[in-house]
Amino acid sequence: MVRIKIKIVLIIESMFYFGCANKNIVSSHNHVQMVRFKNMPIIGRTQSGQDIHLGGLSSLVLLPSASTSSVLQFVSLTDRGPNGAAIKRTNKKPKTVRPFLLPKIAPSLIYFEYDQLQSSVQVTKTLRLLDPNGQLLTGLPPVSQNKNIKLEGAVDEQGHDLLGDLLGIDPEGLAIESDGHIWVSEEYRPGLIKFSAEGKMLAMYVPKGFYLKSELHQIEKQYGRSDFIHQILPEKLLNRKLNRGFEGVAFAGDNIILMLQSPMKNDVAGDKAVRFIILNERNKISYEVIYNLESVHADKLGDLAVSGEHILVLEQDSKVGEDSVHKIFEVNLVNQNKEWELVGKVLRSDLVQLGIHAFEKLEGVAISSKNEVFIVNDNDFGLKEVVGKVQVDESRGTYLIRYKLSQ
C-alpha cells in the first residue's frame, strides 16, 4: 500500500484575538501570520432562521503535488456539523443530548488554496462524504443497544428528539493515500473509515462488540450488506470518554496510526495514559502503544503528524490563553519483534510562547517541506452560546495560520 507521508501537527485552544494588520493578513506577530477565509458559503438555515456558514474545520492535509511555489493546496474536514452544548436531562433517556442545528448536513472534505503572494485563502471544492450506497452521511450519533456503550442523543433546535444514524460519524482526523483513498478517524465509536477518492464509504473499522447482531442485521437490511463493518479494534476502546474518541490518524509505512484524544475511563495504564492503535489494514491485526501525558496539567491530545519514524504530538490542557499548556512533542515509533513502542520524547514547540492563542479551538496543522507550519481553527461554524441558546457570531471566522518551525 503506497502512502502519502503527511505531517499534521496537533492543535491548540485559545480565546484571544490578535488585532488586524490589513484586510487579508489579520496579524503578523513573532513571524506568525493569520489570514481569514473569505466568502465562506452558507450551508443551511436553522429552525430559528439563522444562516450558518461553512466552518468547523478539523485536521489539515497539504497537497504538495497540487501546489505551486506561490499557491498551496490544502484539504481539511468538517466535523459532525453545527451543534449546541450538551444538555443533561433526568426525565428520559438518553440522559445526555446535544442540539443539532442542521441534522441532515453531511460531513465533508474542504479543499482550499492559499495564495502566498496575495495573502488570501479561498475554498475551491467541497466533497461530501457518502454511505456505501452513495447517499449522504450525517453527523448524527450512531445507534447501539450495547448497554456498556455511552453515546449522546440528538435533539433539534427546539429540543425534540432526533433519530440516531447507524452509520453517523463525528470526523476529526484525515489522511489521504497517493491513490486518492481517504481515511477518516471519528470520535463516536471510536472508528476509522476508508472512503474512495469520490467520498464513498468502503470500510468501517470499530471496536469489537460495538454493533450487536441486531444492529448488523439492520445495517444489512438498510444497505444490502454489512460486510464493510470490521469489528476488529480492541474492545477496551469502548471505554473511551464521551466525545473523546479518535482525534487523529496518520500513516506509518503499511500501518495506520490512530490516536485517542484523552485517557480512557479507569484505564489500568493510569490516568495519564493515552492509547495509540496501530492497524495493519492488509492482515487486519492491530497493536496498542501507550503515550503518557508529560505536562502536569495536560488532559488531552490534539492531532498527530508522522514523518518517517518520527511522530509529532500535541499535549494540551482544557484551558485557554497565556497560562494554558499546549506543547508539541516528538516521539519515535519503534517496532521490535512485533511489539510497538513510542520512545525518545522531545519537546519541539511551546505554541503558547509563540503567541498562537487567538482562538478557542485550533484543530488542523500541516507542515511543508520548508518546515513551515500551517494551522486552521475550528470556529464551531460561527456559533456561540448566549444564555443557553445558540446564536451566530459573525466575528468567529475561519483562519489559516502560518509560522516557521524551529529546528
Please tell me about this protein's structure.
The protein is mainly beta and 407 residues long. It has a domain at 25-75 and 173-207 and 229-404: Neuraminidase, CATH 2.120.10. The protein has one helix and 30 strands. It has one helix spanning 213-223; strands at residues 25-29, 32-36, 42-45, 51-53, 57-62, 71-78, 87-88, 96-99, 108-115, 120-128, 153-155, 161-162, 171-176, 182-186, 191-195, 201-207, 229-233, 246-252, 255-260, 273-280, 285-292, 300-307, 310-316, 326-336, 339-350, 362-367, 372-377, 383-386, 389-392, 399-404. A five-stranded antiparallel β-sheet has the order 1-2-30-27-26, with no helix packed on it. β9 and β10 form a beta hairpin. It is globular and about 55 Å long. The relative contact order is 0.19.
Q: Tell me how many strands there are.
A: 30
Strand order of the largest sheet: 1-2-30-27-26
Nearest-integer average pLDDT: 86
Radius of gyration: 20 Å
Which structural class is indicated by helix and strand composition?
A: mainly beta
Number of helices, where a helix is a run of at least 4 consecutive DSSP H or I residues:
1
Silhouette: globular
- In percent, how helical is the residue content? under 10%
End-to-end Cα distance: 31 Å
User: Which fold name corresponds to the CATH topology of the domain at 25-75 and 173-207 and 229-404?
Assistant: Neuraminidase
- Largest sheet: number of strands, sense, barrel closure: 5 strands, antiparallel
CATH class of the domain at 25-75 and 173-207 and 229-404: Mainly Beta
Instruction: Indicate the proportion of strand residues.
Output: 35-45%
Stretches with pLDDT under 50, minimum 5 residues:
1-23
Name of the CATH architecture of the domain at 25-75 and 173-207 and 229-404: 6 Propeller
